[in-house]
Amino acid sequence: MSGIQNLQSYDPFADLGDSGDTGDQQTYIHIRIQQRNGRKTLTTIQGLPATFDQKRMLKIFKKDFACNGTLVDDPDLGSVIQLQGDQRTKVLTLLVDEGGIDKKMIKLHGF
């Protein structure tokens, strides 16, 4: 029975803290696409740095891309910008060229 004592429970993730999140996810900007109904799609942008004004960015996106959009406050994800249509590549190029954000800090998701 002394061999069973070696099978004590060991948690390898106990030293990471309560959430287990390393914080890398917060440094990235995530650009995703969601399918609505039929051919309609929705582009979501989350994780913009605090230096950017969310409302002003939404206004710039709407004017440059000729689409409608809204700002949604999610309790888990923070503020999320939603744009109508597939605007992923346009948002990526605008953030890299005009916003001065490194392309490695942006994650492009979808299809």
From TrEMBL:
Residues 1-23 are annotated as: Disordered. GO terms for molecular function: mRNA binding; translation initiation factor activity. Belongs to the SUI1 family. This is Translation factor sui1. Probably involved in translation. Keywords: Protein biosynthesis. Residues 29-99 form the SUI1 domain. It comes from Linnemannia elongata AG-77. The keyword Nucleotide-binding does not apply.
